[in-house]
């Protein structure tokens, strides 16, 4: 949705302001302190202070907050009557598809923590078709012997969205699965090779 909107340009990077009001900041106090300590987030007594620093009209922020609060109210009162498709399914009164609103209302006189964010690739949903044993398949479903996957390279195991957390979950779980399957495949291949070699040796003595 960020790419559909227009953020501010800083150098060659398109940025957006992540604004956390007092209630939202309290929910993730440790994170706010962590990012402030690294210069990635800044606290403001109110939005007027923020607007002055970034040379933008406070009335624009007031109008944005007013609209946000109104949309949140409509969503709470009639969640299925919105004119827009909501992210994740359902309907929304928000043009960007937002349907869950928390820590309301937004008020320009509230305290805020603000950071700059920009769209990046956070997670790859994979692309390698695989079996439950982490065996990689061709487009027709045939298994490619000896080829396995774990982590973000996996495809088709998440459904329409990924599991919460990060790719370490995929790496650990399917790392064990693929490791076990690979060991089994290697053992079977070795046994078959030894048996074949033994048969060949026996035939040569005849």
Describe the secondary structure blueprint for this structure.
Layout: E1 8-10, E2 13-21, H1 22-27, H2 29-37, E3 41-44, H3 47-53, H4 58-77, E4 84-85, E5 91-92, E6 112-117, E7 128-129, E8 135-137, E9 143-148, E10 154-155, H5 167-204
Parallel strand pairs: 7-10
Antiparallel strand pairs: 1-2, 2-6, 3-6, 4-5, 8-9
What would you say this structure looks like, in words?
Strand 8 and strand 9 form a beta hairpin. It is built from five helices and ten strands; from the N terminus they run ββααβααβββββββα. The radius of gyration is 27 Å and the shape is elongated. Helices cover 39% and strands 19% of the residues. The protein starts with 7 loop residues before the first strand and ends with a helix. It folds into two domains: 110 residues, Flavocytochrome C3, Chain A, domain 1; 77 residues. The strands form four sheets. Strands 1-2-6-3 form a four-stranded antiparallel beta sheet. A two-stranded antiparallel ribbon has the order 4-5. Strands 7-10 form a two-stranded parallel ribbon. The protein is an alpha+beta fold and 206 residues long.
Salient structural properties:
Flavocytochrome C3, Chain A, domain 1, alpha+beta, 206 residues, 4-stranded antiparallel beta sheet, 2 domains, two-stranded antiparallel sheet, 5 helices
Tell the overall outline. elongated
Distance from first to last alpha carbon = 74 Å
Class by alpha and beta content: alpha+beta
**What Rg, in angstroms, do the CA atoms define?**
27 Å
């Amino acid at each position: 949705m960020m790419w559909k909107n227009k953020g501010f340009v800083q150098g060659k990077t398109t940025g957006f302001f992540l604004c956390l009001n007092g209630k939202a900041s309290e929910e993730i106090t440790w994170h706010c302190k962590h990012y402030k300590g690294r210069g990635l987030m800044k606290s403001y007594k109110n939005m007027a202070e923020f607007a002055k620093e970034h040379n933008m009209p406070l009335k624009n922020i007031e109008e944005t907050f007013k609209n946000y609060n109104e949309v949140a109210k409509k969503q709470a009162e009639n969640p299925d009557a919105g004119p827009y498709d909501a992210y994740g399914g359902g309907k929304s009164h928000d043009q960007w598809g937002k349907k869950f609103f928390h820590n309301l209302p937004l008020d320009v006189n509230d305290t805020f923590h603000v950071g700059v964010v920009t769209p990046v690739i956070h997670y790859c949903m994979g692309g390698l078709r695989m079996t439950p044993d982490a065996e990689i398949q061709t487009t027709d479903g045939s298994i490619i012997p000896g080829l396995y996957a774990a982590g973000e390279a996996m495809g088709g195991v998440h459904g329409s969205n990924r599991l919460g957390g990060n790719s370490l979950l995929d790496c650990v779980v399917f790392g064990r699965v693929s490791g076990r399957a690979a060991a089994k495949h290697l053992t079977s291949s070795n046994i078959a090779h030894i048996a074949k070699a033994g048969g060949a040796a026996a035939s040569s003595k005849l």
